[in-house]
């Protein structure tokens, strides 16, 4: 639905996740306001997603990329579309997440109350169980190449996670970026393709003089990793994670030859520690080593 005066737009990126995408758009359709533009960007799905979206959600504008451009490239298509149609704020929502009906209201209130806000990151809860926190803000230590679990990860939601606070990085599952911040810092880095691109964007937006804020009243429920098989079901999370962490750290915090070598070793060790619980572990190990090798070689873009 083209809304010439829409100040807020929601971008949903879809890739071979028809059921998830339809559920996500169902939740967007239940937003308690009619002045929000919606664009669904399809990254070359082969499971009938585009036709299903057209049929079930004619109110959403559908853009078919015809190929998998990754999280960064696909979302950038939607962001550019929203900005071209006058958006002041663009909300990125994972297709394997559902958004609360009042989430845009919460984002809008936070934006009005914080003039320096460039990125607003919502509270993301697990789909199951729905009262457990997946993301309530997070640090990112570019010197060490480590940020740890998000604040509140796996814990019951509660008052501790109920305040608007500055954070170092947003989560791409539910985040809003302002027109001004996107203009100053640029869009998502398409060379990163997927994972850690929200970290890079947060760092660039902060470097441009804006704040990244956690907005707890803007909520979504996330089927974690649905687009890539879950936290333990895919090697892509390991490959892109280690590769892009190395690249983003070196981009934002140069350390010199010795410091770079030590940080690379620390990043590699932290990802190797994630391998044992995964099955088959040999493929997971191979993904970590492949990602680390490509980072050292400067090979970015989609995984070969």
| Category by helix and strand content | alpha/beta
Largest sheet: 10 strands, mixed
Sheet-strand content, in percent, reads 15-25%
Mean pLDDT, nearest integer?
95
Distance between the termini: 37 Å
Number of strands: 10
Low-pLDDT residue spans: 226-232
Per DSSP, the total helix count is 9
Shape: globular
Helix content: 25-40%
Order of helices and strands: EHEHEHEEHEEEEHHEHHH
Tell me the radius of gyration.
18 Å
Give a short overview.
It contains nine helices and ten strands. The chain is α/β, with parallel strands linked by helices. The longest helix has 17 residues, at 236-252.
Write a structural description:
The protein is α/β, with parallel strands linked by helices and about 300 residues long. Strand 2, helix 2 and strand 3 form a beta-alpha-beta unit. Helix 5 crosses helix 6, helix 7 packs antiparallel against helix 8 and helix 8 packs antiparallel against helix 9. Strands 1, 2, 3, 4, 5, 6, 7, 8, 9 and 10 form a ten-stranded mixed β-sheet that branches. The chain is about 40% helix and about 20% strand. It is built from nine helices and ten strands.
């Amino acid at each position: 639905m083209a809304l010439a005066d829409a100040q807020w737009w929601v971008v949903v990126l879809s890739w071979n996740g028809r059921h998830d995408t339809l559920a996500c758009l169902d939740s967007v359709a239940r937003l308690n306001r009619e002045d929000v533009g919606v664009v669904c960007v399809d990254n070359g799905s082969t499971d009938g997603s585009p036709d299903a979206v057209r049929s079930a959600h004619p109110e959403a504008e559908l853009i078919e990329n015809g190929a998998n451009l990754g999280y960064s490239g696909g979302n950038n298509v939607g962001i550019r579309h929203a900005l071209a149609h006058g958006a002041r704020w663009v909300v990125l929502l994972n297709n394997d997440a559902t958004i609360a009906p009042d989430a845009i209201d919460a984002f809008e209130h936070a934006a009005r109350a914080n003039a320096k806000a460039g990125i607003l990151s919502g509270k993301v809860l697990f789909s199951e169980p729905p009262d457990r926190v997946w993301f309530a803000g997070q640090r990112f230590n570019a010197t060490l190449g480590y940020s740890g679990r998000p604040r509140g990860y796996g814990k019951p939601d509660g008052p501790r996670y109920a305040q608007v606070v500055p954070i170092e990085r947003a989560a791409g599952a539910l985040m809003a970026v302002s027109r001004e911040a996107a203009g100053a810092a640029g869009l998502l880095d398409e060379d990163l393709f997927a994972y850690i691109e929200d970290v890079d964007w947060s760092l660039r937006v902060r470097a441009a003089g804006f704040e990244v804020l956690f907005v707890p009243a803007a909520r979504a429920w996330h089927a974690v990793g649905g687009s890539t098989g879950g936290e333990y079901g895919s090697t892509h999370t390991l490959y892109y994670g280690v590769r892009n962490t190395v690249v983003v750290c070196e981009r934002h915090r140069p350390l010199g030859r010795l410091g770079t070598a030590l940080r690379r070793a620390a990043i590699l060790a932290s990802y190797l520690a994630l391998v044992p619980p995964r099955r088959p572990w040999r493929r997971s190990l191979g993904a970590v080593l492949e990602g680390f090798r490509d980072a050292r070689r400067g090979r970015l873009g989609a995984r070969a």
